[in-house]
């Protein structure tokens, strides 16, 4: 199992420059600790998460790191022209000397994003899958012609070509069509912090029934903090967990109320944003607790990469937590 860092560029102190460069320091520390990967999320219109331009942020990370793989976690494809994304991804892969991983998602549940980018939520998943199909052709083929429902091109070749052939692709979705698409193309899957173990096991099982070689292609992101005692860890992480819970419950309530079609309810066997649920499904606690939680995820899911999201508002506390993980947890799981 590889260890990764999950990067949200949180603006804990209402200081944009500080938020950006504290996240960079954590990535550089993760690389120094021997972490294999760092994944950058994409958020829009959010004063708490300052990563709307994740490819720009990753270009900066490419210049200040040398060994850690850099992953998009994830590009919200329906909000972009896929031709431009192909150009940017190929350029970024060259900038980071072939260390790029390309994670994609449809976006949501954030209705404001779909509203301002002019994308119907009912079409976003189909747009994501069609966009990545076009991007794959543009990255590795010449004179590409494509005539899809949403995107078209005629005898197009993009430059530069990527350094990796292919760039690893990951899809953040538990939808059956997305799982099938990922398995058929040997893409990886990503599971976010609110996804229940039951849902993740079901997703991974469906994928591996279609593609048994995908055992090393599952990325699990989890909120994380390890301290000397579990009480200390929970106390340090709880303000972040609580804020995330409140924000996501508000967003999903809006989605449910405004959807023209019946939506599957959020529950603890699928995806849930309740505070106690998030704490239970995170890797937060003392050393022994964190070891046990990671081992359970390993046993149930056969994880390829565990991406840790440090959950303190203090840079120093997060650095200490990553150091403790490296010294007292990592070699025991």
The rounded distance between the terminal residues' Cα atoms is 9 Å
In the predicted model, the low-confidence regions spanning at least 5 consecutive residues are: none
Give the C-alpha Rg: 19 Å
Largest sheet: 8 strands, parallel, barrel
Alpha plus pi helix count? 11
Q: State the strand order across the main sheet.
A: 1-2-3-4-7-8-9-11
Residue-averaged pLDDT: 94
State the secondary-structure class. Answer: alpha/beta
**What is the helical fraction, as a range of percent?**
40-55%
Any descriptors?
alpha/beta, eight-stranded parallel beta barrel, two-stranded antiparallel sheet, 46% helix
Summarize the structure.
This protein is α/β, with parallel strands linked by helices and 333 residues long.
Descriptive overview:
The protein has helices at 16-32, 54-64, 82-95, 111-117, 124-140, 176-184, 197-210, 230-258, 275-280, 287-301, 315-329; strands at 2-7, 37-40, 69-76, 100-105, 144-147, 152-156, 169-171, 188-191, 218-227, 283-286, 305-310. It has 333 residues and is of the alpha/beta class. The strands form two sheets. It has an eight-stranded parallel β-barrel with strand order 1-2-3-4-7-8-9-11, surrounded by eight helices. Strands 5-6 form a two-stranded antiparallel sheet. It starts with a strand and ends with a helix. The model has no long low-confidence stretch (mean pLDDT 94).
Q: What topology emerges from the helices and strands here?
A:
Elements (H helix, E strand, L loop, with lengths): L1 E6 L8 H17 L4 E4 L13 H11 L4 E8 L5 H14 L4 E6 L5 H7 L6 H17 L3 E4 L4 E5 L12 E3 L4 H9 L3 E4 L5 H14 L7 E10 L2 H29 L16 H6 L2 E4 H15 L3 E6 L4 H15 L4
Parallel strand pairs: 1-2, 1-11, 2-3, 3-4, 4-7, 7-8, 8-9, 9-10, 9-11
Antiparallel strand pairs: 5-6
Helix pairs in contact: 1-11, 2-3, 3-5, 6-7, 10-11
């Amino acid at each position: 199992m590889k260890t990764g860092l999950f990067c949200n560029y949180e603006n804990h102190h209402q200081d944009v420059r500080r938020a950006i460069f504290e996240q960079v320091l954590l990535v550089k520390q993760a690389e120094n600790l021997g972490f294999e990967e760092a994944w950058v999320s994409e958020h829009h219109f959010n004063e708490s998460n300052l990563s709307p331009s994740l490819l720009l942020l990753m270009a900066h990370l490419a210049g200040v790191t040398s060994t850690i793989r850099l992953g998009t976690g994830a590009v919200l494809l329906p909000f972009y022209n896929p031709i431009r994304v192909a150009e940017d991804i190929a350029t970024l892969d060259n900038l980071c000397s072939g260390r790029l991983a390309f994670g994609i998602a449809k976006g949501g549940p954030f209705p404001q994003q779909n509203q301002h980018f002019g994308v119907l939520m009912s079409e976003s998943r189909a747009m994501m899958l069609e966009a990545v199909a076009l991007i794959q052709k543009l990255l590795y083929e010449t004179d590409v012609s494509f005539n899809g429902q949403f995107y078209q091109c005629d005898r197009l070749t993009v430059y530069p070509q990527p350094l990796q052939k292919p760039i690893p692709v990951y899809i953040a979705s538990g939808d059956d069509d997305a799982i099938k698409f990922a398995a058929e193309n040997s893409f990886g899957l990503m599971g976010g912090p609110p996804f229940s173990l039951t849902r993740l096991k079901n997703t991974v099982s469906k994928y591996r029934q279609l593609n048994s070689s995908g055992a090393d292609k599952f990325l699990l992101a989890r909120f994380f903090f390890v301290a000397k005692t579990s009480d200390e860890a929970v106390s340090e992480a709880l303000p972040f967990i609580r804020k995330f819970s409140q924000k996501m419950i508000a967003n999903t309530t809006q989605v449910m109320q405004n959807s023209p079609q019946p939506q599957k309810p959020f529950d603890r066997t699928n995806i849930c944003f309740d505070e106690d649920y998030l704490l239970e499904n995170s890797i937060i606690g003392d050393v022994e607790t964190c070891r046990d939680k990671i081992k359970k995820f390993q046993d149930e899911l056969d994880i390829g990469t565990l991406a840790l999201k440090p959950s303190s508002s203090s840079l120093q506390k997060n650095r200490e937590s990553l150091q403790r993980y490296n010294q007292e947890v990592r070699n025991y799981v």
